[in-house]
Amino acid sequence: MTATAAPEHLDRTVDDVARRAQEAFDGLSRTAPGVRAAALRDAAATLADHADELVAIAQDETGLSEARLRGELKRTQVQLRLFAHVVADGTYLDVRLDEADPDFVLGPRPDLRRTLWPVGPVLNFAASNFPFAFSVAGGDTAAALTAGCPVIVKAHPGHPRLSERVAQLVAAALQAAGLPEFTLQLVTSQDEGVALVEHPAVRAAAFTGSQRVGQLLAARAAARPDPIPFFGELGSVNPVLVTEQALQERAGDLLAAYVASVSGSAGQLCTKPGFLLVPEGTEYDDAVVAAAAQVPEHRLLNPSIADGYARRVAEALAVDGVRVVHPGSSRHDDSGAGPGQTWVTPTFVAVPLDLLRRAGDALLDEVFGPFSVVVEYPEGADLAAVVAELFPGNLTLTLHLGEHEAAEAQAALLTHLARHAGRILLGGWPTGVAVTPAMQHGGPWPATTTDGTSVGTAAIGRFLRGVTFQDAPQELLPPPLRDDNPWGVPRTVAARGDSLGW
């Protein structure tokens, strides 16, 4: 492939990074599934071998606990091994063969062979709150590599040393396993990231972060002379709806679990429940206060996150009529032990549904951190209409029902809820996103910019496109489309004469 020329205004270093990725794509897209799968497994093993070193760096840079970080690093390894299994299986290529058929019911049909093809170099903007699982070697990187796309990671400034070290280790592991040099590269500055969104060699971008920054980058991707897909996860408040019967049956356990879900990792999770909707007259203060009082202070990821959290909490508390159920604490440290960092405990407030409507964005906008709103809805409220009006796009929506609530009415409610979230939970809590084939981690705007998922094996599809070859000689076909199927991938065949029985 001839390298695509870059516009003259682009920085030379950025152009070199993009060109190297484009050159790596030529080899990576032709790499046999077994080689790519082995490379992903080797990358996972390398992370495991260096776990102590990496966790120590991550603790220092993010303030997250050792237990949380070790769990996240294990998740990252499992993610890579899961995608290695997907590569080796080959089903993700969705290979379809239509045999030439002179008797096809609509007229003679040529020989048609379709597969999914990697889009090209992918730019991945790493997230702050998951320094392993949504960063250099995280889900977006794993999905793109599985698809056969080289990856350029824009490191998050919240964990620069960790990003550099993970990139060194994983890039070396991939190359040692037989993948092309520069299959994985790292850039660190904001200007480099923006410039790469516009570089013609980059064919897709993934982002996890704020709605404001995500919209700016998505606009850049769309304004290119050749617009590219931009897969952004931008914001979600993840409402939890609770019926009166559910509260009557298990109020204590339910409210304690709510506090735990809001408070985990200092609420710095994209699936944190920002709103709990309960019937008017519910007594919840004592249970929430008792559980929240047991939550120790936790450091926010970085000073920028802390500033945003303080601003949003102040805006919410300034709304006339907001009632504080449990006031959280905030401790700022300018000493040598943690210069510029902030430690917090969770804050819970309550409002009636009508006040939430009147307050608008001051309450409805996401608060990234350990803050949540209990919303009291009146008897007979149409919860489907409430969600459509106030919470139109989320990663998750959760419904807690009583053991014997009317199935028909709740099934209709679920149908409405599914229009407004990518994952619907019946019971349970949205924090904790399983890395599995059936997971959907994406939702209607503003949760994400597309209907794709950034978690689970379906995430690979964001970096693939369909290509059909018509009447091509065997020697010119890609391996999965040849009659001898050297990669051994599953294929769907439409045989000659089938249409006569339709």
TrEMBL record:
<dbReference type="Pfam" id="PF00171">
    <property type="entry name" value="Aldedh"/>
</dbReference>
<keyword id="KW-0560">Oxidoreductase</keyword>
<protein>
    <submittedName>
        <fullName>Aldehyde dehydrogenase family protein</fullName>
    </submittedName>
</protein>
<dbReference type="InterPro" id="IPR015590">
    <property type="entry name" value="Aldehyde_DH_dom"/>
</dbReference>
<dbReference type="InterPro" id="IPR016162">
    <property type="entry name" value="Ald_DH_N"/>
</dbReference>
<feature type="domain" description="Aldehyde dehydrogenase">
    <location>
        <begin position="11"/>
        <end position="381"/>
    </location>
</feature>
<feature type="region of interest" description="Disordered">
    <location>
        <begin position="478"/>
        <end position="502"/>
    </location>
</feature>
<dbReference type="InterPro" id="IPR050740">
    <property type="entry name" value="Aldehyde_DH_Superfamily"/>
</dbReference>
<dbReference type="InterPro" id="IPR016161">
    <property type="entry name" value="Ald_DH/histidinol_DH"/>
</dbReference>
<dbReference type="InterPro" id="IPR016163">
    <property type="entry name" value="Ald_DH_C"/>
</dbReference>
